[in-house]
Amino acid sequence: MGSRIAWLNSLSRLVPLLILCFLILCFCQDLILKEQVPFFRDLGPYFYPIRFSLYESFRSGELPLWNRHMAMGFPLLAAFQSGVFYPPHLLFLILSFFAAIRVIFILHFLIAGIGAYYLCRNWKFPPYLSIVGALLFALGGTIVSLSNLLNHFQTAVWLPCVILSWEKLLSSRSWKNFLGFTLITAMQFLAGSPELFAISMVFVLIDGMKIRQSVPAISHGKLLSVFLGANLLVLGLVMVQVLPTAELFLESRRHQPIPPQEAFHWSLKPASLLNLFFLDKEIDPTTSKGMRLFFGREAPFFVSYYLGAISAFGVSLWLCFSSLREKITLLSLVAASLICALGSYTPIYPFLFRHLPFLGAFRFPEKFFFFTYVLLLYMALKGLGDLLLHNKDSVKGPFVALAIVCVVWVGLDILSSFNLDLLARFIAPQSVNSLSSPDHAKMVAGTMSNLDRQVVLSLGFLLLIVLAKTKAIRLPLFAVLMVSAVFVDLAWAHKSFLFPLHPGFAYESQRILQTRETELNRFFYFPSGRDLHPSSVTVMGRPTLKESIALSFKNFLPNAGLLYGVDYFQEIDALGRQPYTDFLFFANQLDFTRQMKLLRTFNVKHLLAFRPLAENGITLIHHFPDNFSWLYKVEGTIARVYVVNKAAVENDSKGVLRLLSNAGFDPTLEVVLDRAIPMPPTRQLKATAKIVRYENERVTIATSADSEAILVLADSYYPGWKAFVDGREEVIRRANLFFRAVPLPAGNHNVEFRYEPKSFTVGLVISAATLVALAVVTVILAFRARRKTVQGLKSLSQ
């Protein structure tokens, strides 16, 4: 009988969790039933190609240290956003690529919801309110918006689990809890977003300070020592990722402050705060950007800030019930995070940017809104809990606050209904549409529809709360209705913001080139503006959202062609290696002819543009009206590997590029090195070079030369590459700013380039040693605990 009761109790505790999982799976039903995949912004041209590189490496049984197709060769593992060591990426070993992508998205929504649910339960909220909290976090605007920025999404969803493991550690400072917090924190770190990881650690400290107020035995010293000890262990565990990333950072432009214009891009626009409790946009798949903005022209970093209609009630109730100290503390934190998120819209963040060095490496201040989002959700949930769970002496004030929220929505709805011209004039300056345009009329109609929606939801939530407090309906019915209303609200608002599409077009669409035509030559997208960096796409037409996404794959826009084995010159990694940055600064000031001269020297053979180009040094291959594109062949492109016997020496990147772009420079006869190589007097050279083995981390070349010469491999020069000529190691020189070169004696030789980075080797040793040490300590402590248990049982038996 007792075991049956225990089983029923366990089942009753499991039911709310099963309901939550079911609701999250319903939210992801397009991914499950229709086998669709989210496609928006950076997913197609950036994150999916990187994940595909992981997929190919894992399937071939190699560690993805380097990818030869990206950016003339790129240290894939070192790119933090690749998440090479992130455990969920092991799904690429057992599933097809897009199937693994679907499962990864669903898994992370479940992690967000389940983690938030158990955190709420740990805060003593009842199951139904814990489900509400989990839905608000997992399906709220910020988390759903991050789904198109995969590394940020994967990092953000772990926050509730990190906080929960931290609270368990503080409540019982056992090795088990310490190990749990360390491993979960390491998991979040490896997910790929250092910014959101840092924000999470700030939340951990704030939560620790809060717990310390109720547990005086936890001193500031103990709190900080536990926090720092755990993070030091995390650092040891993830050193295999940290050291290669640090090496890439030092090779990038990020060791210098980012220009303010770029750093402040995607500052939070003050008008976007309307979206906290109101839907200010709608999906429009007939347009290339996929949505219609009511009060703006450019989609923000977070596509949606919407917290759910119930959150407006929750925050209002928190203001009524919370102590003055809590109000001051949390509102100060909200204000500070908002000031940072507003970026260039306030003078404060630019001042901090100039005087705090670490902000110099931080792009897009709007990311700080994640901090605001979490604080507002905490306020909302705590406010709802204070009203629903406790019998306060007076609820008159809180209900007045709830009534005010409803009156505001009703008043705005009535005012807009009777003053459509006023609403239309308010919308017009914010958008690119005139008052008489059809799109503007749709925006007005959409705004009115969403106002009606908020009125219905707010009155419905108010009625539910009144019925619950007056006990007019039973708690189970109230719980079902509350959870259902919150889910419907959030699913209605955000389900379409996943932008799901069936990925078949990535493989089935007609592409502009066959892969065999791109072998050992590089591809270059020539943008419509002055900047040669592929930061934007402008086509002469009006493609739909699906067509615009398909264009990336059909036209091999960087780096979508990685799915087909295309090699790229352009680099779109967030860090940006210094040579590429120097190239952009120099080349953007050149005329078209000299730009083509540089690209020819850099092994670029195919040039794609969304407008016709002056055919000076290039030949039109084909115009693709359906793809809005023109494909050109660059004449006289240098080979991937070649031999010369003449070298100039130049260390300054601008000086190198100036030499390479001069009309008199012939890259087939001469190379520009960073250090001199002694050479005999120049004479006509007879030499050949052929690649016999070309892999990501190993390149073997057969060479022949009738005199001393220099072998040039048109792949990225980067720390960790070693060169061996007939088995004897040679020093690699930087060639033509980007490439690798080694001296060759006369005769036939076998040259091998191998990527063996010390940063990875040292990091792997440190991470392995840390993991072994944790395992040993865990085994020793488990053995001691077992021995104490056995001794205790023996003493009792005696």
Characteristics of this structure?
5-stranded mixed beta sheet; 5-stranded antiparallel beta sheet; 798 residues; alpha+beta; 52% helix
Question: Could you explain how this protein is built, in words?
Answer:
The protein has 798 residues and is of the alpha+beta class. The longest helix has 40 residues, at 758-797. The radius of gyration is 30 Å and the shape is globular. 44% of the residues are buried. Strand 2 (281-283) and strand 3 (291-293) form a beta hairpin. The strands form six sheets. It has a five-stranded mixed beta sheet, covered by helices on one side. Helix 1 (2-27) packs across helix 4. It is built from 27 helices and 20 strands.
